[in-house]
Amino acid sequence: MPNGGINELPFGQKLQNHALNARLNDEFKKFFPSVDKEPIVRDVAKQRYWIHEDLINVEVRGRDGEMHRHNLAQAIIEIIDAYVATKKEAFEGFIETCRQISELAEKDVKAALEFIKQQIQSNVDARVFEIVSFSILKSFYGEKTVFWGWTRDALNEEVLTLYKTGRTNANDGGIDFVMKPLGRFFQVTETIDVNKYFLDIDKIQRFPLTFVVKSMDDAEEILRNIEQQAMDKYKIKAVVRSYIEAVEEIINISILLERLEAVLQAGKIAKVMEEIINQSRVEFNYAAQNDLEAEEEADFLSALGEE
């Protein structure tokens, strides 16, 4: 299957080979561990990929009592098209609602607040949760400053700034957000699977990592759960402790709501809504994407002093 076809679909413009191939094969193995074939096959020498058609050819007994072989490719394509259309309609509705709420944010703060709260519940789309949690945390940390410098007599006061480092589900090394100037790393997740957490920690060589978790479970309980899973898997306390110490903070839905309340008290709800709209346009490949990405890149380079 040529990657160009995937890239031409809505939401597929930025898909890379690892997302299309490795992740799909890994997910397939997870649900069908006894099948010795992978859905996507790669020819390393030719740098080509194709679907393993044996997995989509099925035999069905017909009315004549004979077995007939059918290829499910067309049916799969129709399912994908229906899924894409449904998702696109949902995201377009989401962005339009964001726009309407944003226009009212200054006048109807309560409506904007309730809308934001609805977007960080455990049953919302993972992309939306990541965008909204980033928007909340960016405004929350933006109210705080730190002092730093090379000597005690030459300190600089700088506002904490949160940057979104890529798109959702980008498999980019476990860094979804990064904070300047503290250099804190954030990873958004909707699972409490120890393998996922430890994989992200290993990707950045056990550098302290903050997890933003789409869960109503208590943050301390989440960490205890992860630690218990790790003990069951590794058995060695020193190994488990080295991983657990790399978890700088767990930010669950309750903590996000608390930080949203702090943003409300600071009068920054409209800023949160504006950020949600901007990030949604980038994430869902809307027309304003290129202009916004260029603007964000310029802001980032300016902040680094590299213009």
Structural write-up:
- There is one protein chain.
- The protein folds into 2 domains: 3-58, no CATH class; 81-304, no CATH class.
- The chain is built from 11 helices and 11 strands.
- It has helices spanning 3-7, 17-31, 73-104, 109-118, 126-141, 194-203, 219-234, 237-244, 253-265, 269-283, 289-304; strands at 40-43, 48-51, 57-61, 67-71, 145-151, 154-159, 161-164, 177-180, 184-189, 209-213, 247-251.
- The strands form 4 sheets. A 5-stranded mixed β-sheet has the order 7-8-9-10-11, with helices on both faces. A two-stranded antiparallel ribbon has the order 1-2.
- A hairpin with a 4-residue loop joins strand 1 and strand 2.
- Helix 3 runs antiparallel to helix 10, helix 5 (126-141) packs across helix 9 (253-265) and helix 10 crosses helix 11.
- The radius of gyration is 23 Å and the shape is globular.
Largest sheet: 5 strands, mixed
H/E element order? HHEEEEHHHEEEEEHEHHEHHH
Mean pLDDT: 83
| Uncertain spans | none
Q: How would the global form be characterised? A: globular
The portion of residues forming beta strands comes to 15-25%
The tally of strands reads: 11
Which strands sit side by side, in order, in the main sheet? Answer: 7-8-9-10-11
| Helix fraction bin | 40-55%
Helix count, per DSSP?
Answer: 11
Cα-to-Cα separation, first versus last residue: 41 Å
Domain unit count? 2
**Structural class category:** alpha+beta
Rg on CA atoms, Å: 23 Å
